[in-house]
Amino acid sequence: MAHLQLEAFLPYRLNRIAAAVSQDFRAVYGPHHDLTIPEWRVLATLGQFDEMGAKGIGRHSAMHKTKVSRAVQALEERRWLKRRESEEDRREEILTLTASGRKAYREIVPKALAFERRIVEELGTEAGPFLAALERLEEIFRLR
Amino acid sequence: MAHLQLEAFLPYRLNRIAAAVSQDFRAVYGPHHDLTIPEWRVLATLGQFDEMGAKGIGRHSAMHKTKVSRAVQALEERRWLKRRESEEDRREEILTLTASGRKAYREIVPKALAFERRIVEELGTEAGPFLAALERLEEIFRLR
DNA sequence: CTAGTTTAGTTACAGGTGTAACCGTCAATT
DNA sequence: AATTGACGGTTACACCTGTAACTAAACTAG
Prior knowledge:
Two copies of one chain form a homodimer.
Chain A lengths: L9 H20 L7 H13 L4 H8 L3 H13 L3 E5 L7 E5 L1 H25 L3 H14 L4
Antiparallel strand pairs in A: 1-2
The structure holds a DNA duplex (30 and 30 nucleotides).
């Protein structure tokens, strides 16, 4: 019978590694601010783009619109972002970070980059080819 | 201000890629049998080991015991596996695939391997270094 | 102008998930 | 043998998620 070892099976391994990385990454922002991943993604997107509607955030961070909606609500309650009605289209709500939101962003980003750098360093010479392969995978699965 | 591009951030990319791979892989077993990922993992583990308790399955497939418990229930209702009380330890339930379970397993495994092979082929010369990097990551995050 | 369609965003609902509490059994100590 | 703690497995609960239905606003075509 054709054999399959789960522990050597690519989808399984990718899932586990991604989960472990996310889990570890949570330790980066967890202690100070207790964010969920969707909240972090919204924060990161708004930190990157200053102004954006929920739709745009969803597109950029690859999240379902309900996930974005809830993450935005949560961040709003935390007073890390505020909404403003778009003038061209009153359905749309333009979102921006508040001062506290930008402060949190500025605190988290260096830690996030350090976290990433640490992984890349531990990969050593394998890092380059690995990142190149990730790009190929993104093409293969049309993620860009 | 230190900059972070979400779309270039490793944890984000890994999560997206893993999700896309799982999603695509679902198309492999989805059409015929409509399995969840936990159910597939239990099936794969029992296909690999013939007999095992829920605890062992959880350890081997990196799943929480409640997830295993529910996946086992689902597969039992499908009549793809059966339970038998262990004779050494009456707390433990030894699980084995039924004939239908083994049949499904034999149908899915070649497709799963083909799916994996296709990805590796599309990676071409980058496949080797990529898989090596995955092993490094598994070490770094103590997944083995 | 108006009817029908599309779009930005929210929400009700159903399903999946982990935490914690639980049941029955085993093992160690007395 | 009785007690205590550990263990395999299940379940109640709370939380998160996507689907689908919804609201309000915008667009399109008569």
